[in-house]
Amino acid sequence: MQKALKLANPTLCTWAEGLAEARDRRLFITPPIGEWVLVVGPGLPDPGDDVDECYHLLTDLSRKLGLVQFFSLNRALGHHAWARLDSGEVLRAYAWAGHVAWNQGPPSPAELGLDLRCYQYLDQAEKNWDESHDPILQNIERLPMLAARWSVDPTVLDERHFTTGRGIVGEIT
Questions:
Q1: Torsion angle, CA of 15/21/27/33, rounded to 10 degrees?
Q2: Given this model, what pLDDT does residue 164 score?
Q3: Exposure of 148 by Cβ count < 10 A (0-12 exposed, 13-18 middle, 19+ buried)?
Q4: Residue 153 in contact with residue 147, Cβ under 8 Å?
Q5: Which is deepest, 13, 97, 132, 167, by most CB within 10 Å?
Q6: Which of 149, 154, 156 is nearest to 39 (CA)?
Q7: Is the pTM of this model over 0.70?
């Protein structure tokens, strides 16, 4: 993963150190969690800012690593995204940044089962002032469930995960 991301100044670290250092252009690559490795930090591209940068990073990683998944969430702005790629091919991607920034591939069974609402390009989001039925808020709330169905829900990691192994922190180039 470190080579695929082309991290500069990589350093072995604990979970606590890695999460504390994951700021600016730095990323934390976790030790394996089952068969998955997570990469966290603001150095990852935000599809709401530049969907092309996100697409290029994910397709490049997927060509090198095989199956790659991406999840992004900004509760303050209501932006959210998910993507699943294999061998450089986008199987499914959706990004909402106040508008549809990316919608590629058919919805997965997991998305359908969670009743995630994915708009088409140029669709206007229906605003429902009843928060329990607002499709954007529902997507935000259900995004960790999608992560769990596809791989790992990072919101449920606990102390036993944080004490196992060492990760790597470094700067994305």
A1: 10
A2: 77
A3: middle
A4: yes
A5: 167
A6: 154
A7: yes
3-state SS class at 84: strand
d(CA 67, CA 100): 24
Query: For the chain, which residues make up each domain, given as ranges?
Result: 2-165
Residues of the chain with pLDDT under 50: none
Question: Cα angle at 40 between 153 and 77, to 5 degrees?
Answer: 80
Tokens representing 33 are 């969690």
Token pair recorded at residue 70: 């991406």
Sheet of 79-86, strand order: 68-74, 79-86, 89-96, 100-104
Element (H, E) at 8: strand 7-13
Rounded distance between C-alpha atoms, residue 104 and residue 120, angstroms = 10
Tokens standing for residue 78 = 């209501």
